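Design job #97: recover the sequence.
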């Protein structure tokens, strides 16, 4: 069925970003689109995919194709998950509620950010699909523990511990805009403990000021063992880029790993994630599931990530562009666009199922 809310000139993610830009305030567009410092990693995440060449297989019967797979035992219609992204209320009034509804319709998992504008409970009530909760760790252990308990008791099925953000990366566009949330938008998970507002008087980014005063910069591997001891949920560690860290994560109890550089928003000039993926996959050696995000804009990007060992990919900014353009149906359009590009990439590379997407599809230069 034709989606009447979507501009029919938008046929790919880049078109949608251009439309989203016209709908968002400069403050919101800059917050969503920017990376740290010179934005080298932001761009490299995308260009690294373009530099990897495929070796498609010919004369394979691809008349029946199946893109479905499982993530921690839950079926997803395609290996495309929704990355945690803060402040979705800047894109659309329904914010995370709309995203959760689109994820359910599409048949995938959404990861809710700690810094969501709608609360853990509201998002859980909005849609019946599979949800994971992303955790930022506050200095106040009571605050952190209560977030975990709320996610668990609301029915979230996994925790995603983000480990690349003891402080906020230097996002210069946010510094220039003195980023803050417009009146009426708060971090609803913190209503009641006075942590729901970003400081209004910051001379630079209000988010950077919030994080530097509240997040636990002493977080280390032993804390992972603590998280594991206080929850029954599987814990994934998000932000791993090296084999030794991947091994250590498993040693301290991680149930899954997300190879990520936060979409180039933290340490600039960090290695593009598709380059980090093979060494992490090799170190993990199938002991836990490995996911990746950063720069996924095309179906072929998904194919390459799966071929190099990712269980599934996460999408960040593309989902936000869809949300800004048309709320729930915009997010669904983004997911559908990527899924149909991925379907075509599978067909043209001789892969009727996910299991057929093997490393030999990738030019030797980029494999381990
Ligand atoms: C606007 C925005 C907000 C984000 N907020 C969070 C967050 O709250 N927690 C987190 O772990 N990652 C956050 N991320 C990082 C994403 O989860 C993901 O790693 C990244 O967006 C992937 O790159 P992509 O945007 O190129 O798909 C955010 C990313 C963006 C663009």
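Job complete. Output follows.
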């Amino acid at each position: 069925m034709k989606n009447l809310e979507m501009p029919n000139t938008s046929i790919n993610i880049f078109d949608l970003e251009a439309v989203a830009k016209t709908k968002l305030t400069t403050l919101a567009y800059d917050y969503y689109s920017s990376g740290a410092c010179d934005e080298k990693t932001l761009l490299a995440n995308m260009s690294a995919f373009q530099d990897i060449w495929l070796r498609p297989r010919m004369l394979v019967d691809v008349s029946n194709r199946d893109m479905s797979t499982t993530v921690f035992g839950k079926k997803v219609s395609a290996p495309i998950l929704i990355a945690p992204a803060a402040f979705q209320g800047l894109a659309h009034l329904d914010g995370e509620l709309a995203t959760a509804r689109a994820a359910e319709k599409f048949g995938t998992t959404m990861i809710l950010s700690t810094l969501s504008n709608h609360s853990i409970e509201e998002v859980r009530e909005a849609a019946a699909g599979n949800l994971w909760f992303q955790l930022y760790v506050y200095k106040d252990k009571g605050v952190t523990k209560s977030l975990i308990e709320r996610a668990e008791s609301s029915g979230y099925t996994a925790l995603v511990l983000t480990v690349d953000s003891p402080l906020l990366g230097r996002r210069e566009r946010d510094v220039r805009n003195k980023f803050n949330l417009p009146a009426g938008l708060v971090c609803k998970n913190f209503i009641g403990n006075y942590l729901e507002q970003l400081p209004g008087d910051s001379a630079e980014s209000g988010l950077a000021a919030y994080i530097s005063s509240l997040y636990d910069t002493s977080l280390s591997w032993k804390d992972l063992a603590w998280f594991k001891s206080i929850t029954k949920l599987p814990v994934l560690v998000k932000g791993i880029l090296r084999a030794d860290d991947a091994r250590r994560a498993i040693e301290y109890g991680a149930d899954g790993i997300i190879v990520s550089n936060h979409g180039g928003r933290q340490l600039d000039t960090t290695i593009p994630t598709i380059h980090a993926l093979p060494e992490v996959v090799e170190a993990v050696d199938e002991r836990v599931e490995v996911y990746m995000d950063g720069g996924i804009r095309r179906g072929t990007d998904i194919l390459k990530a799966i071929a190099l060992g990712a269980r599934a990919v996460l999408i960040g900014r593309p989902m936000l562009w869809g949300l800004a353009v048309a709320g729930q149906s915009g997010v669904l359009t983004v997911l559908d666009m990527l899924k149909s590009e991925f379907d075509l990439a599978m067909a043209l590379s001789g892969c009727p199922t996910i299991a057929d997407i093997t490393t030999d599809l990738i030019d030797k230069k980029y494999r381990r």
